[in-house]
Amino acid sequence: MGRRTLLKGTNPSAFDKIYIALKEAIEMDWGMENRLSRLIQPDGRCFFLPVDHGYFLGPTRQLEKPEETIKPLLPYADGLFVTRGVLRSCVDPQEDTPIILRVSGGTSIIGGDLAHEAITTSIDEIIRLNVAAVGVSVFIGSEYEHETIMNLANLVNACEPYGIPVMAVNAVGKEMEKRDARYLSLCARICAEMGAKVVKTYWCKDFEKVTGGCPVPVVIAGGPKVNSEKEVFEFVHDGIQRGAIGLNLGRNVWQHPHPVAMMKSLHAIIHANADVEEAVDIFKSSVD
After folding, report:
1. How far does CA 272 lie from the centroid of its chain?
2. Given pLDDT bands bounded at 50, 70 and 90, which one contains residue 29?
3. Residue 236 is part of which domain span?
4. Is there a domain that residue 246 lies in?
5. What CATH number does residue 174 fall under?
6. Which of 200, 225, 230, 284 is catalytic?
7. 200 counts as catalytic
8. Domain tally for the chain?
9. Residue 4 lies in a domain
10. What does the pLDDT average to over 236-257?
11. pLDDT per residue over 85-126, tens digit each?
């Protein structure tokens, strides 16, 4: 489309209005792509560090002082998933790690139902904080399924005009038995259909059924309860081999006795195609 200039003081024609709308849409698409490229690295992979757990868990173990937990881990993270409160109080504004802002909440671990969330953060606040993306939980199959799906849809409507990507978080509340491929593939697909640019979901057996049915990138949120770092490396490696583009893993990292070693090892699986044994070797060498 060639350059077209409107004369000052003239009323735009129908063509001019279409041209202006298309130009603005193209510019916003550039912004969307730019933000996603800050999070998803040139190799097509990503490693996000979530530290947003306090919004429903309070000062959980190893997040009592978030700034002390976050600082040594940031060099290995492609994005930090965090609430606005912790972002403002615990993250240096000079830090260049892209921010994914948690924008849903309103429940707690001692309340009636973790699924009863609402959007907590306005689009003005999202823009003011200059974040790379936003994240919202969706509770498929819960009593609040409709409300949380609409939270996602309304958030996409608010963010899309400003070129801000939305990450949908497939949440299961306290019902961990729901982590199977049939359920998680349903959740991921619904989130993509609502306009999420990235879907965060739990690892499960037959994970290719989840990634294969989701037309947008999938990142691994976590997996089964494990007793060793090797078991973490195993489900992460399996998920990457079965179509995930990356990882959004928190408690298995910062609650581990050696969180930096965990970050280094997982970073190698994501970005250096390390296998499980190579990741174990990196972990051991980082601890020694």
Report:
1. 21
2. confident
3. 14-255
4. yes
5. 3.20.20.70
6. 200
7. yes
8. 1
9. no
10. 96
11. 999 999 999 999 999 999 999 999 999 899 999 999 999 999
